[in-house]
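Q: A reviewer asked whether we had any structural model of the full assembly, not just the individual parts. We don't, so I'm hoping you can provide one. Inputs are below.
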Amino acid sequence: MGKRILMALAMIIAVGSLVFAGSQGETQTDARKITFMYQGTDQFQASYKAAVERFTAATGIGVEMRYAPHDMYHEQLAAAIAGDDLADVVQLDGPFLSSLAWGGVLVPVEAYIDQNLLADMTASNVVQCTYPPDGKLYAMGHIDSTVLLYANKSYLEKIGARIPTSVEDAWTLEEFDAYLAALAKLPEVAYPLDIMRAYGVKSEWGTYGFYTAFISGGGGIMDRENWKADGMLNSPETIAVARKFQEWADKGWLVPASAGANMVFNEQRSAAMAWCGNWYWAGAYPSMGDDLIALPLPDFGNGVYTPNASWIFGITKDADKEAAGQFLSYMLQDQAFIDDMIKTGEFPGLKSWAARDPLYSTDMKIAAEQAAYAIARPPHPAYPTITSAFMKAFANILDGADVEDELNDAAAEIDEDILDNDGYPPFGK
Amino acid sequence: MRKEPKNKLSRFSLLESFQELGMLTPALILLALFVMTPFIMSIPLSFTNQKLFPSPIPVKLIGLRNYRQILSDGEFWQAIKNVFLFTLMILPTQCGFALLAACFLNKQAIMKKTLRAMFFLPFITPMVIVTVIWATIYKYPTGLLNSFVQTVIPRFQMIDWLGNRHTALTAIVFLSAWQAYGFQMVIYLAGLQNIPEELYEAAAIDGAGGWKRFAYVTWPSLKNTTIFVLTITTIQALKLFTQVNILTHGGPLGSTNTLVHYMYEAGFIGQKIGYSAASSILMFLLVFTVVLAQRLLLKRMED
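A: Here is a predicted structure for the entire assembly that you could use as a starting point for your response.
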């Protein structure tokens, strides 16, 4: 027995001294170091890692990388804030900027960023990084985005569809509806349209992919004058667009969630069109080649409107802001990093990148053109609630719920949250 | 638990109880630190409008507003209904399967250890991985299950198992039962090995066949084991979350929404921590009541 106790004691001492030595070792390295929280696909992760290594080699500033999975990212970010363990540089999805700037998590970045980089940002990129109440940049971005229709050209030719060549002559809702019906009748087409239900009903896609369709139909999520959802999210125009999507789902025209996101370009090619972000091209083109064409989103009656914004980088309140700004300035101007972005078909948010990226002046030139028709998601601190209420309602509507009930409930949920926070001053004033 | 008959010297039992306490301490400390303390902290939180992201507006006491909102929310009641349905479905499925597997393994002579390990394997596979594997089984239209049923019954209309509100919850019941039955199986196995062989011998002499031996010897002897298994399975079932969060996010049309998922959505996606805390308190009261009622009921059956 005594021997065992001795053994246990010895082990405790051994472990303890190891821990002690470890912590001493840490204090000895006093090199400058920042932390960086990010998300993204395997390819993106590799690009960030490589850019970080080049940055450290060039400046001697270390970067501790903290990865969080895409679908859980804002939850993990919130946990980091609550646990007072926030990274110096955090990635965030564009529309969450208002919420984080309002809460004082992010600081204005302009003073810490290289002037050349600031001047290189596209107009839409500046908008996604700006907090509307004070007009200051609270983040930096290099990529933007848009949503397009992608079609199998041979199917469109079979049904004799008119193929738009610019946003100006985008399909009207009537045309789009008629083409879906015609495509549904082709024997090789099981589903005329894939709206990426495989991305899951509770991913930002549910809001991002579709909010502009509602605006295009004369409705929308929020009244941007008084920041109320009631009267807009449940307006007759919004209801009409929601009914249209529900009708397509009812008819079995939309690819179901569990079927995956590759029905347009897999071997069977059993879906005719996809409604997806600009990143779709890079995935679909290798197998479809020139059979794949990119088209503008349809006009639901009130003109074409298209989504924008992407994942951007903010500097947090307790950060080593100089080093954080240096890091962002380096990475976003690192041409090898931008080359990686071009390879994955990302949509440029920097003018210099747009100028040397052939994709957006050729096959995807519609995407570049669409940037002029883009409208941001509601830049309001209540955005987390806005998007969660909207995407839930939209998913339920696709699953056959009563359209008016769902939109009324979502509008009430959003307005109640705004009320709970005294209107998020200075908004609503 | 029943007191054991006092056939030992009292100083020994004093020593024993110290020993028991000593062995319990590490678990108790962890429980107090990571379960009880956060729960107690969430009680005051549930009366406030605390948000997840920081806010320049000071946190206010808002009385029972959170509770009133939750109790008047149709989604909350739907989540309760789903959780009860899930529990009612999974109790017989999972415990029945566990008992069946335990009986089989108890008699098995060849490859005893290998078979036991194989039967236990799903339980030590993380739920996330099991869920992803089952997602491909349930896939529509080309998943394993649909293809299999269609091979057997050529006229079968393929079903979107997880995308149909009439089948989604049942689909989750089967994958959950398959993943977790190993735990109940091991407990039943231990219970089975505690049944004295003489009882079976006596039953055999009395001319009892296989089924009668099970009904009159095995099943009654496993009563305490069954009570434990039912209680623990109920608690686990009421906490359903992971599978739902990965596969359906509560959909379609809220048919797979659960209490924990409701709480998670309010807190982490809707960012309403106060509201989420209030729903966790309501959930605690519910689980506590159910388990207490179940315990009293089973106790009465026992006596």
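A: Points you may want to mention in the reply: The longest helix of chain B spans residues 10-45. Chain B has a mean pLDDT of 89.
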